[in-house]
Structure formats: C-alpha cells, structure tokens
Amino acid sequence: MKLKIYADRLSQPSRAVLIFCKLNGIDFEEITVDFVKRQTQSPEFKEINPMAEVPAIMHGDFKLFESHAILRYLACAFPGVADNWYPTDLIKRAKIDSVLDWHHSNLRRGEVTLVQNTALATILGRQPGPHVVPEAEKLLSASLEKIETFWLKENEQFLLGNSQPSIADLSLVCEIMQLEVMEEEDRNRILGPYKKVQQWIEDTKLATRPHFEEFHGVLYQVKAKLQKQQLLGANTET
Amino acid sequence: MKLKIYADRLSQPSRAVLIFCKLNGIDFEEITVDFVKRQTQSPEFKEINPMAEVPAIMHGDFKLFESHAILRYLACAFPGVADNWYPTDLIKRAKIDSVLDWHHSNLRRGEVTLVQNTALATILGRQPGPHVVPEAEKLLSASLEKIETFWLKENEQFLLGNSQPSIADLSLVCEIMQLEVMEEEDRNRILGPYKKVQQWIEDTKLATRPHFEEFHGVLYQVKAKLQKQQLLGANTET
Which domain of life is it from (chains A, B) (predicted)? Predict the structure, then answer.
C-alpha cells in the first residue's frame, strides 16, 4: 500500500512532510492540491481532509491530516526512519513534542499571518486591518528570539542541543523559509538579529540536501515572480 | 521522584494536566503560579519554563512545558495509565495527535481570544480592536461546528468515535469550560446550536468525576464574582 501525500509545495507543512519522506526513503505518490486555485475546497479533497487543508495523507485506508501528526506517524510506522527524527526515548521525544506544540501559536501564527497579509495579500485577496501586520511581525520576532536564546544551544547544530535534526527542525525551518517571498529588506530586518537562527537554517538545508532545495523550487519561483512584479511596479512609478 | 506540576487552575491546560493525574492515580505536588498576579513572569518560574506559561512540570531533573506534550509524556511514563488516554496503537494514537494539533489554531485560538477580550478583558487590562471579538467568535463557532459534525461520531460518546475518553477529550472540554466565565446569554448563543458538543461535555464530566468538578471550582468562583459585578453594574445604572 503506497503512501499518498496530498500536498501543495507552496505550503510549508506540505514541504516538511514531502522532504521527510524523501530523506527517509519512504515511497510515496504526491498528489498536488493547489490551495490558491481553491482545490482544497473541492468535495473530493474534503473526503480526504474535511478541514480542507494540505498536507493530508492516505496510507491504505487510513486518512490523516495535520502535519505534525503525520510526521509523528510516519516516523513510527516506517521502520527505516532513523531515531533522531522522533526518538523512542520518552524524554527526548517529549522535548520534541514540546517544540512542535509551542510552534502552532508562536512561530507559525506569526509567520503565516505576516506573509499572508503582506507578500501574498494580493494573491489571497486579503485586506488586513491596521494592527494585523505589526502584531504578526511582533509575534514572529518574539518567536525567533525564543528559538535563538532557548531552543538552540551553544555548540550544537539543531534544536534542543541535538547533533542531528528532528521533525521539529524540519517543520520550523520550512516555516521560516516562507519568508523568502517577502521583500528582501523586510526579510533581512526580521531575520537579521538572529545569527544562530540563520546558521541553523543553513545547517538544516545541508543536513537535508538535495531534497530541501528540490521541494523549495516552487517557492523560489514565486519569489522571482513577486520580485519581477515589484520591479515593474517601481519602474511604472518612476 | 515526585512529579511537580506548576499550574493555575484558572488556566484550562493546567486543569487538563491536573485532572489527568488525579484520574490516573499519579502522585504529584501542585505548585500554584498565578498568572493574573504575573507570577508566571518571575525569574524563579522562568527557570522552570522560559516561555513563562502554565502548566509546566518537573519530573526528577526533567522540565517540560506545553500541556499536550506533558499529557503525552505522562501517559507514556506512568505504567498505570489506561490505554484509552493515549493508545499505543499507531493509528489510534495518530488520530488523537491530529485532534490535539488541530486544536491549537482552531478551538483554542478562538476561545482564548474571545474570553480574554470579553469576560476577562478588565482583569487582564485588554482593550481589543473592533474586529477582534467578532473574528474570535467566528473561529470558535467554526471549531465547534467541526467538532459537532466531524470529530464526534454517532452512537459514541467521545471524540473520534471512541467509547472512552482520550487526552484530546480532556484538553478540548477543559478549553470549552472556559466559556463559563462569559455572560449566560453569550455562552448560550455560542454553544446552543451544538447539541452533540453539549452532550459530549456532560459525558466527559461524568467519565472524569469527581476530579473534573473539583478542579473547576476556581473557575466557578470567578464566574460567580463576575456575575455579581455585572448585577451591581446593572443596579447602579438603574
């Protein structure tokens, strides 16, 4: 029973699941569900995930959604997955769960709200109220500060002082990568103060190559397209 | 090594952890950290949880925060915990993880934003913008709708069609209980349409008695206090 992954590579949790499978030699079929084209809202996809969000998986008859639940499941269901991704040791596992749970209302909420209401606002038809963007940037920066000063330890490359990446590193770095679609100046202002975070992103890319860059290709294309539009807009204004 | 739980019974994730331990015969010391009095911000407490939030635990030297990570850990670390709370079966466990992960950006976000910006706004010094409350109520209602139509199944009492409660039932019901501090009229308007949700709350209370009510005592006291203030306010206006 081949694993089916319903994903959109523009969605950061989708990328985390796809990269995880590639890295761990898990054979899968990728089924693209384009959320900008509202394919996540189709009756067929809602049969897979009634919450109408990507990613979702089907493994035999078993349907599952929520990327962290999927990553936990895959790490346990496929015997070839190395222990560092989601350790069997209870304490090590609990610490990774703690990062993953913290992520939802902190880094993820800040990043998603910021990017969807700035760089992607036109594509998504958003018209944010005056407080939305500054509040999102504040939450994002506070989250990056916590990663820099607490989750990343001295002398180790990955979260929680680990020498090898876990599903938490993959999930959080894919989230931060979404900032690529923002204007360079804004992205540098946001990430600039966090040197350890910047090094950790590079270390995660290296540890997961070549699949990390492969699955981020679509994001880089969107970035290039937005930069071109911005340039055209600037020229028109001139 | 006795488990230490740093908690505030006014915090719904704190109550979920406390009730879970009582139900499963886990011996613990409860250390109250009052978030209204900003005790969560003290340097001593930040040594336990640098995120300055309750609940947190110490088990021997091991410190852990994030209530879902704590519940998962306790269910696995204490051999006396019945399997229904967090099943060892991979598929059953993954489904519970899916509910727990979904919770953060849906039911929890809607409920917390609504209650903290209405009933508890004065205590917490909040002055919400004009869209905050209606958007929070919309998200909360959409989340209750999903619980009613998807997570709760016909003919079974608990989430996911289970005949016994899991840590997801406990976490989500404790969250909804926070609506107790709202005005009766608002609470009825919000919960009224969801008959299965109402029955599930009652079933969860029954399955977890007497500890459920015991740990909700403080919440009922706050509710009574707010009702009295409201009544005094109404009389003054007359």
Answer: Eukaryota
Range of the domain at B12: 3-81
Question: In chain B, what are the helix, strand and coil shares in percent, each to the nearest 5?
Answer: 65, 10, 30
Q: Judge if A69 and A92 occupy the same domain.
A: no
Which residue's structure tokens are 């950006």?
A: B105
DSSP B77-136: H-TTS-GGGS-SSHHHHHHHHHHHHHHIIIIIHHHHHHHHTTTTHHHHT----TTHHHHH
> By C-alpha distance, which of A155, A161, A149, A156 is closest to A193?
A149
Cβ neighbours, 10 Å, residue A6: 24
- Among the listed residues B138, B42, B160, the one whose alpha carbon sits nearest the alpha carbon of residue A69: B160
Helices (H) and strands (E) in chain B, counts: 11, 4
Is the Cβ pair B102, A129 closer than 8 Å?
no
Tokens of A218: 């679509």
ipTM > 0.90, yes or no: yes
Instruction: Measure the CA–CA gap between B166 and B158, rounded to whole angstroms.
Output: 8
For residue B195, the cross-strand partners are none
Peptide bond into A87 cis (omega under 30): no
Nearest to residue B128, comparing CAs of B140, B114, B142?
B114
CB atoms B91 and A62 under 8 Å: yes
> If DSSP codes are grouped into helix, strand and coil, which group holds residue B226?
helix
Calpha distance B26→B21 (Å, rounded): 5
Averaged pLDDT in 10-residue chunks for chain B of 238 residues:
96 98 98 95 97 98 98 97 98 98 98 95 86 95 98 94 97 98 95 98 98 97 89 64
Measured between CB atoms, which of A76, A104, A131 is closest to B129? Answer: A131
In this structure, are A104 and A210 located in the same domain?
A: yes
The CATH number given to whatever domain includes residue A35 is 3.40.30.10
Token pair in block for residue B219: 């919440």
CB distance B90 to A76 below 8 Å: yes
Q: Which residues of B touch A62 (CB under 8 A)?
A: 91, 94
B32 sits in which H/E element = strand B28-32
Per-residue pLDDT reduced to its tens digit, A36-56: 899 999 999 999 999 999 999
Query: For residue A238, what are the contacts with CB-CB under 8 A and spacing of at least 6?
Result: none
Pick the closest to residue B106 from A6, A105, A16 (CA basis). A105
Instruction: Please tell me what DSSP assigns to residue B56.
Output: E
User: Domain count of chain B?
Assistant: 2
* Nearest-by-Cβ selection for A69 from B69, B77, B94: B94
